[in-house]
């Protein structure tokens, strides 16, 4: 029998020999002159990039107003994180507060408190903004949403145990988020220099026994009697029902606070939920 | 053909495979070196495609596309020593891409190699026999046999080209050779 491998090699050599050298050279030159990529590929690539960009912008725009529980909320937060990583993200503290209002209206007090906590936490790292915001609060500027909602949430955190009617809310405020919010609020106030009138009324600080906190004093002003935050053992009572009704306007609780019997300037100016006088 | 000592590269006299110096020159942008390599490689690819079942026209067309792919992908070649494996990878990928795009090419493979009168006229009886035997082998066996026995690639090189383990390539090459011999024995019982 003939060796098939021998025949295979002979066949290959035969096939090679049937390609004229001139033709091989011409094909080689043609390949070297060929454009690196076909224009069609470039067009398709550009179209794909354009489509993806438009899709991204559209998705980000659609997701922006999403609140917790919405299908696009995760997308909204993802875009925010990407923006933050790229250093092009804006300030989302107000957005968190708006979301807190929405989820609170839906009865999810725990999530609402977490959102407020997240919003306030950012202020700890940004004393300039914190100072500006607090000053605006004191001056009754058009920061009604922040003013009213922070007050709402901190009041909830402080007085939750005494405001019956919503078990979930009471539970959430008694837990870590509520207490953390009050603590964060206290630290923010201590970390910034406020105008002289600052500290007369500050959300989240009305419930505890008074304590002298030098850090809370405004420069040149009298020592601030910064109350402690809600003690873990239980917040002071609040006498105004409705403060914790989901989505409803809470009482400021000022009258019931043992350490803050004077009327609050901010409370007088605005409604906790509407932000309007 | 095949079984060359590639530790120093290929022929220094313009043969195949190209020398490491030629390959390095081509990688460095020497158009003359690249043109020489492609001119030498073109008949190799056409022969390979013909052995895998493509007709002349298709084999030449796909081979031209393969050369263009090599020009584009030359910067991806890691080192001169990897040239042959890279060369046959590009050639094989181009053929597979063509198969995916064209059912016509695939059908020609399926229906065999010796049904073209022009091909039969061009081939001697000896070649017709090996073509008939090749036609009865699965595609992968055909490729392994060709790369191993005709082009002289190592089992390691073939394994990396075909995404197989080296041991599996050895077994497949041996099995393909035995199958070819069995088919040949039936075609040539004397």
Key terms:
heterodimer; A: 277 residues; mainly alpha; elongated; disordered C terminus; B: 190 residues; globular; disordered N terminus
Give a structural overview.
The complex is a heterodimer of chains A (277) and B (190). Chain A has 277 residues and is mainly alpha-helical. Chain A is 55% helix and 0% strand. Chain A is built from 11 helices and no strands. Chain A has helices at 4-17, 21-33, 39-63, 73-86, 93-105, 109-124, 127-139, 144-159, 167-174, 176-191, 265-269. In chain A, helix 5 crosses helix 8 and helix 8 (144-159) crosses helix 9 (167-174). The termini of chain A are far apart. The model of chain A is unreliable at 160-166 and 194-277 (pLDDT under 50). Chain B is built from 10 helices and no strands. With 190 residues, chain B is mostly helical. Chain B is 71% helix and 0% strand. The two termini of chain B are 28 Å apart. Classes of the chains: A mainly alpha (277), B mainly alpha (190). Chain A binds chain B through residues 1-2, 4-5, 7-19, 21, 23-25, 27-32, 34, 36-37, and chain B through 1-2, 31, 34-35, 38-44, 46-48, 50-51, 60, 63-64, 67-68, 70-72, 122-124, 126-127, 129-131, 133-134, 145-146, 149-150, 177, 180-181, 183-185, 188, 190.
């Amino acid at each position: 029998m003939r060796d098939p491998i021998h025949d295979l090699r002979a066949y290959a050599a035969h096939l090679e020999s049937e390609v004229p050298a001139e033709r091989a050279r011409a094909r080689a030159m043609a390949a070297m002159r060929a454009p690196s990529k076909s224009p069609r590929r470039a067009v398709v690539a550009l179209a794909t990039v354009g489509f993806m960009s438009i899709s991204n912008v559209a998705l980000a725009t659609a997701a922006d107003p999403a609140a917790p529980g919405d299908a696009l909320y995760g997308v909204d937060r993802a875009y925010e994180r990407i923006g933050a990583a790229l250093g092009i993200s804006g300030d989302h503290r107000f957005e968190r507060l708006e979301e807190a209002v929405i989820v609170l209206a839906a009865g999810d007090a725990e999530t609402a408190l977490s959102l407020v906590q997240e919003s306030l936490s950012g202020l700890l790292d940004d004393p300039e903004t914190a100072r500006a915001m607090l000053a605006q609060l004191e001056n009754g500027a058009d920061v009604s949403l922040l003013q009213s909602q922070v007050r709402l949430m901190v009041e909830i955190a402080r007085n939750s145990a005494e405001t019956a009617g919503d078990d979930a809310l009471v539970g959430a405020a008694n837990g870590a988020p509520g207490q953390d919010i009050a603590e964060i609020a206290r630290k923010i106030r201590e970390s910034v220099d406020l105008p002289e009138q600052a500290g007369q009324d500050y959300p989240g600080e009305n419930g505890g026994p008074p304590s002298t906190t030098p850090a809370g004093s405004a420069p040149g002003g009298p020592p601030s009697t910064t109350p402690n935050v809600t003690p873990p053992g239980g917040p002071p009572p609040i006498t105004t029902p409705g403060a914790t009704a989901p989505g409803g306007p809470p009482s400021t609780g000022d009258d019931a606070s043992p350490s803050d019997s004077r009327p609050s300037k901010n409370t007088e100016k605005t409604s906790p939920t509407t932000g309007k006088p | 053909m095949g079984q060359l000592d590639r530790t120093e590269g290929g022929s220094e006299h313009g043969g195949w495979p190209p020398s490491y110096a030629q390959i390095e020159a081509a990688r460095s942008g020497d158009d003359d070196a690249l043109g020489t390599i492609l001119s030498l490689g073109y008949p190799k690819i056409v022969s390979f495609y013909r052995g895998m079942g493509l007709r002349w026209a298709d084999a030449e067309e796909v081979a031209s596309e393969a050369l263009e792919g090599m020009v584009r992908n030359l910067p991806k070649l890691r080192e001169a020593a990897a040239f042959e494996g890279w060369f046959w990878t590009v050639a094989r990928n181009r053929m597979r891409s063509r198969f995916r795009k064209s059912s016509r090419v695939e059908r020609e493979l399926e229906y065999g190699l010796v049904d073209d009168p022009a091909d039969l006229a061009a081939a001697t009886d000896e070649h017709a026999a090996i073509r008939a035997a090749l036609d009865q082998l699965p595609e992968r066996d055909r490729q392994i046999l060709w790369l191993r026995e005709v082009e002289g690639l190592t089992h390691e090189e073939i394994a990396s080209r075909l995404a197989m383990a080296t041991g599996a390539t050895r077994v497949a090459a041996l099995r393909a050779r035995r199958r070819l011999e069995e088919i040949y024995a039936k075609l040539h019982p004397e």
